[in-house]
């Protein structure tokens, strides 16, 4: 049974950055109710009524996974590790974005799946065989026929975006070879609860995974979790290694460890999520208080990173361009546009000192360390970062390197 524990109010589609804010454009903006539920049967945390994926993964998809040095490094390191460990003959990536992961593979040995046509064009252009389609049973059958069984399937920040997980894992089960491994990583519900990072809930994050939920879900498709890793990427992610349940793979010691950890954190109890929802409401009040106080003193506040995540914050906390003057983002195709719902202007990175900016809200708090290094002159000059994780606050000196 699905039980709702959090209501994040009316939210737009996070990828729908606006070209302009004229009446006609605003009238067409789509909103839905972002309510989050916990499934008492399989422990899965999901959006109660997800948005239709055709509205989300269009030919105008803005996010580029290779935009951060942290992620480029992470994808390089996991691709090398997987090749060394599993020596796959044929591999596949689901949700290949701009090719940041598959670039580390030989073109003959990997295929890409990417439903956003503008992104699929990038990997096709790089010479990788790319299916510009959603991952589902019909595509799995097509791939099986053309490429045979796969030894390695990898996916980052994509499986959590797919509403129908049963079909997703069934399709994996069908295409995986007997020694094949499916490795996927997504934001971790345990970290969201720990850091009060409620901004990890937005239209694209249909589910937030735990070991408890995934181990149950894959079992129904004759698969088993053979290993699991907790990662620091994206403010706390979880990486699963899944294989056929009759494969020879032994279970890693990490399995017992994470099972214990999640039980200790009570991720299998509805009350944990109810308590989290109370903290989220408090977080909204605290963040508004900090920002309004700065504005009343005449301070200029901007934001760093026009993230999909921060869209949830702006819309839930009712933060608009009267509070956050503008947002800087290094992604070229976001620049010159406006954020969905609250219509804050996005511009290219600027010299914060020259522009006399004193306060910067970290929309991309998950890259606090990388941004702190980039902006060390600003920080040395007395500039301050603001974050909402784990509690809304103005960051003290030396706090930037903590995640
Ligand atoms: P970032 C997207 O979410 C959408 P977002 C998606 N649903 C998902 O799951 C995650 O990615 C993985 C910019 N930036 O990665 C670049 C700077 O401007 O936290 C990006 O626009 N300067 C697929 O948007 C944004 O911040 C910098 O120095 O929440 C970061 O977005 C750095 C490091 C980043 O994901």
What does this structure look like?
The protein is 33% helix and 22% strand. It has helices at residues 23-27, 53-56, 69-86, 117-125, 137-147, 165-175, 189-195, 211-219, 253-264, 270-296, 308-317, 368-374, 376-380; strands at 2-12, 31-39, 45-47, 91-94, 110-113, 129-131, 150-156, 176-187, 207-208, 223-231, 237-244, 301-304, 327-328, 346-347, 359-362, 384-387, 393-394. β7 (150-156), α6 and β8 (176-187) form a beta-alpha-beta unit. α5 packs parallel to α6. The longest helix has 27 residues, at 270-296. It starts with a strand and ends in a 9-residue tail after the last strand. Ligand JHZ binds next to α11 and α12.
SSE blueprint:
Layout: E1 2-12, H1 23-27, E2 31-39, E3 45-47, H2 53-56, H3 69-86, E4 91-94, E5 110-113, H4 117-125, E6 129-131, H5 137-147, E7 150-156, H6 165-175, E8 176-187, H7 189-195, E9 207-208, H8 211-219, E10 223-231, E11 237-244, H9 253-264, H10 270-296, E12 301-304, H11 308-317, E13 327-328, E14 346-347, E15 359-362, H12 368-374, H13 376-380, E16 384-387, E17 393-394
Parallel strand pairs: 4-5, 4-7, 5-6, 7-8, 12-13, 12-15, 13-14, 15-16
Antiparallel strand pairs: 1-2, 2-3, 3-9, 8-11, 10-11, 16-17
Helix pairs in contact: 5-6
The protein binds ligand JHZ.
Residues 63, 67-68, 157, 204, 234, 305-309, 329-331, 334, 364, 366-367, 370-371, 374 line the site of ligand JHZ.
Short description:
With 403 residues, the chain is an alpha/beta fold.
Shape: globular
Give the averaged pLDDT, no decimals: 97
**Radius of gyration over C-alpha positions, nearest whole angstrom:** 21 Å
Helix content: 25-40%
Ligand identities: ligand JHZ
Class by SSE composition: alpha/beta
Distance between the termini: 35 Å
Order of helices and strands: EHEEHHEEHEHEHEHEHEEHHEHEEEHHEE
Counted by DSSP, the helix tally is 13
How many beta-strand elements? 17
Largest sheet: 7 strands, mixed
Q: Major sheet: order of its strands?
A: 6-5-4-7-8-11-10
Low-pLDDT regions: none
| SS strand fraction | 15-25%
